Amino acid sequence: MENTAAPQQEKFDSQAGYEDAVDAVIAKAKKRIRIFDKQASPAFNSVKRYELLRNFLLASRDNRLYIVLHDAGFLTANCPRMLLLLRHFSHGIAIHETQQHAKHVYDPFTVIDDSHYAHRFHHENVRGLMAFNDSAGAHEFNDRFDEIWEASFLAVSATTLGLR
Q: Quick check: pTM over 0.90?
């Protein structure tokens, strides 16, 4: 069934506004969540984000969460809730890190299915836009995510292979 609701956009201009926008679009997810950022924020260890992502992954075994970060270090060191999700839902989560030649991409975004997104205009600035029912905008972010994904590698695994 095609979504016929009119596109809605809302601006934000604070870190809290951005995190709220990401949570709001995640809450709309039905099949796929794609997140790109410089690094994970502390919100990735919040109970709210954990529950939103957990409920999404529980809703269907076919649901997928893809994350690409320029630096996955903060996530692995400070986000045990995300790592717990990865262990419990390893079939549905992939966390990548960009290769060196792709680290110039500077605008974080989260795109949900083919309809919704939250977009910061630059990782050093908190201004951005959240949109619902914007298939044209979501399509552009999905295409960009595909390009970033191709220029990334698996960075975080649910297993502890490779221990030294």
A: yes
Residue 140 host element (H or E): helix 135-150
3-class secondary structure, 105: coil
93: phi then psi, degrees, rounded to nearest 5: -130, 135
pLDDT at 164: 40
pLDDT digits over 64-75, tens only? 999 999 999 999
Q: Which of 83, 79, 143, 86 is nearest to 111 (CA)?
A: 143
Tell me whether residue 161 is exposed, middle or buried, using C-beta atoms within 10 angstroms of its C-beta: 0 to 12, 13 to 18, 19 or more.
exposed
Q: What is the pLDDT of residue 162?
A: 44
Let me know the angle formed at the C-alpha of 102 by 29 and 52, rounded to the nearest 5 degrees.
20
Contacts of 122 (CB under 8 A, 6+ apart): 106, 107
d(CA 115, CA 8): 11
**Max CA pair span of the chain:** 54
Instruction: Determine the distance from the C-alpha atom of residue 47 to the mean position of all C-alpha atoms in its chain, rounded to a whole number.
Output: 16
CA dist., res. 76 & res. 73, Å (int): 5
